[in-house]
Description:
Layout: E1 14-24, H1 27-41, E2 52-67, E3 70-76, E4 80-84, E5 96-97
Antiparallel strand pairs: 1-2, 2-3, 3-4, 4-5
Amino acid sequence: MHSIVTGRDGADGEYEVRGRATLEADGELNARASETTARELGWRPEVGKFQLFCVVVEDVTFIHWPGDNDQSVTRWPVGVEFVRKGTSATSGGPPEPVQDLLVDEP
């Protein structure tokens, strides 16, 4: 899944989420999802008329261009962050490690 890019300069960034989605066919689980949706949102989806998926997120990447044509990349769960310095309007240099968004927890 990929978020939209909201501006030509890319300053707001974009997200890429990778993983697996499997269809949940269990009727009881679908009924519980319908009940929870009704309780939380005030709208009850009709069991059998919606598809429920189990989604396992395996990788999230955030890319943004904070200025000067540099591309900043942060990935989870591998904990990789790097910047590619802009070398022209459409090109970037090799990845250079940075510590910007990800922090080590105590």
